[in-house]
Amino acid sequence: MSEQFTVGGQSIPNITTGYGAFLVLWGIAISVISESDSITSYFPSLLGLPLLISGILATKIPEKRKLWMHIAATFGLLCALGGTRFFMVMSDGINYASGSMLMLLLTGSIYTYICVQSFIHARKAREE
């Protein structure tokens, strides 16, 4: 079994860094485009920043990778859970806010799934 779990040739810390950067940019872009005065429009950015930092630190401090990846997985789960609010507002149609919620639900769920698969892979590799 390979020591490093990858998805599409990318390590989990690289995926985490990319996902965090995506969320930060998404929150800023949606807030600017929608001309929103609400702090809640920056919610994806607020969740993305710890992901971005965790991904960078997992790469820079490999001996603490497990800690940073567990923190990142927690924020990925928070993204998915935060996105479940989409089901409360979906009857209003898709707008900037509901689109962001749907994006968080889908990407957060996929990211959390990838993290869980990575943790399973790491455990199996340790047992061998």
Name some characteristics of this structure.
5 helices, single chain, two-stranded antiparallel sheet, 128 residues, 74% helix, elongated, mainly alpha
Query: Helix share of residues?
Result: over 70%
Strand order of the largest sheet: 1-2
How many distinct helices? 5
The gross shape turns out to be elongated
Radius of gyration: 16 Å
| String of helices and strands | EEHHHHH
Number of domains: 1
Q: What percentage of the residues does DSSP assign to strands (E)? A: under 5%
Structural class: mainly alpha
Query: What is the end-to-end distance?
Result: 8 Å
For the biggest sheet, the summary is: 2 strands, antiparallel
Number of strands: 2
Low-confidence runs (pLDDT<50, min 5 residues)?
none
Arithmetic mean of pLDDT:
94
List the helices and strands and how they pair.
Blueprint: E1 6-7, E2 10-11, H1 12-33, H2 43-60, H3 65-83, H4 86-89, H5 96-127
Antiparallel strand pairs: 1-2
Describe this protein's structure.
With 128 residues, the protein is mainly α. The chain has one domain (6-127). The chain is 74% helix and 3% strand. The chain is built from 5 helices and 2 strands; from the N terminus they run E-E-H-H-H-H-H. It has helices at 12-33, 43-60, 65-83, 86-89, 96-127; strands at 6-7, 10-11. A two-stranded antiparallel sheet has the order 1-2. Helix 1 (12-33) runs antiparallel to helix 5 and helix 3 (65-83) runs antiparallel to helix 5. The longest helix has 32 residues, at 96-127. The chain is elongated, with a radius of gyration of 16 Å. The model has no long low-confidence stretch (mean pLDDT 94).
